[in-house]
Amino acid sequence: MAALICGSLAFDNIMTFNGRFADQILPDQLHILNVSFLVPTLRRDFGGCAGNIAYSLRLLGGDAWPMAMVGSDGAGYVGHLRAQGIETAHVGQLQDTHTAQCMIMTDRDNNQITAFHPGAMMQAHGNVITPEMAEQVKVGIIAPDGRQAMIEHAAQFEAAGIPFVFDPGQGLPMFNGDELKAFVEQADWVAVNDYEARMLCERTGWSLDEISRQVRGLIVTLGAQGCEVWEGGSKTAVASVKPAAIVDPTGCGDAWRGALLFGLERGWDLVRCAELGNRMGALKIAHRGPQNYVLDFARP
After folding, report:
1. Domains of the chain by range and CATH?
2. What's the predicted TM-score (pTM) here?
3. What digits encode the pLDDT tens for the residues 136-187?
4. Which active-site residues does the annotation give?
5. Which residue stretches of the chain are H helix?
């Protein structure tokens, strides 16, 4: 059985700033912010949440079906996915726009500033989840994508009877409290990082305890501090895994989510899924780019 991964496919332009953002930005001058960062390194990688999650899931041996939209420049990305053994039947292509582009700058403390051009992603609602897919898809995920696509795909997952993870990520600010409540009510699981968790609670007016009682499980990732698994109002802390090196955090959350889908598809409990997710995140952070790491748990 496959995991259907609704989200973006994007080209990541990754830059490294050797200093600290905090040393360059004056808090009392934010209203007239005008700052430039020298970035000695620049690299272009395959990225986007759907692609990164699919890569992680496929490395683990899962059957990954990304559902996404690319632009006129996306043929190479589709070929890359196929070379990894990832199904591309649900990747659409538009000829009048670019594939989504992400510009990511990371400082020496692994803080990031990101600019994102959505391009073809804004038409991702042209891809449709049909009830027939339930015969081959055991679990799905709503990852950051076009606003309309996220809304429609959540409803389509529910209509098809396919359990899914709501993972709003950087797309969370696009939705108001009522819309976020609707996502939670439709979803089976919710996955957010600690910042997104605070925003989700603020906009919905629900606590993490309350959210966890409405779904089968809520996961809050905490970076180097591991993660929290919430089930029925009860919280379990899951320890982090020490990486071999801290090189690039880009895509760590997506690597984690690929592990989550791998475990859910196999009927694992959430704590076991989270433990594998922490290991995958540790593997990823030791490599540059979101899809350049290999499965080697002997050297996290």
Report:
1. 2-21+40-285 (3.40.1190.20)
2. 0.91
3. 999 999 999 999 999 999 999 999 999 999 999 999 999 999 999 999 999 9
4. 254
5. 21-24, 49-59, 75-83, 147-160, 177-186, 194-204, 208-212, 252-265, 270-285
